[in-house]
Amino acid sequence: MTLRSKAQKHFASYTNNTICAGDFDNEPIQDGDVYPGGGRYDNGRLCFIEDHDFTTTLEGGPFPVGEWSMFVPVGYIDLILPWFAQNRNGLSVLIHPNTGYEYEDHSIWSFWNGNEWPLNMDIFTPLTRTADFEQVRGNEGNPTCRESDVVCGEVGGWVGSTNCCEDLACRCDGETCYCV
Q: What domains sit in the chain, N to C, each tagged with a CATH number?
């Protein structure tokens, strides 16, 4: 939970202190707005998922202990990966796509930073799409690049100009950088 709090603070300018809409309850658990999207699969923006008690093991799995998660659109991968690698403090971090093919997402399409955990894959069916998506990669609801006026970095920190959409560049004004 310390790593989660640290990540929420570090990525606050990217998340606008919002949480993802969850599968079960679209009400915010903490201060901030819930992004009106399709839940944990197609939020289309960087956000923290709050859809269960993080300190308890979910019945049936797939994880053997409590866990928390964050939705990371493709355009933010280069921001997230090095930060978690440098700040995980010995913890294990699973990074996987959310394609709806949960067996493959959690196994052959995933990678671990730290020790790999034994997951209960019995709850998933191979080659079966288990989630209903309203968005597809690259459209407005699940963009692969950052649009105009979206945060793309911080002065003195990470600047992701390659993730601004075509004809846009990451420009800094004050402490924060935006795609313009």
A: 2-144 (3.30.70), 145-180 (no CATH)
Q: Per-residue pLDDT tens, the chain, 180 aa: give them.
A: 999 999 999 999 888 877 775 444 434 334 444 444 445 555 567 888 877 788 888 888 899 988 898 888 777 888 899 999 999 999 999 998 777 788 998 999 999 999 999 999 999 999 987 755 555 556 665 666 778 888 888 877 766 655 788 888 888 888 888 889
Per DSSP, 106 falls in state H
**pTM for the whole structure:** 0.70
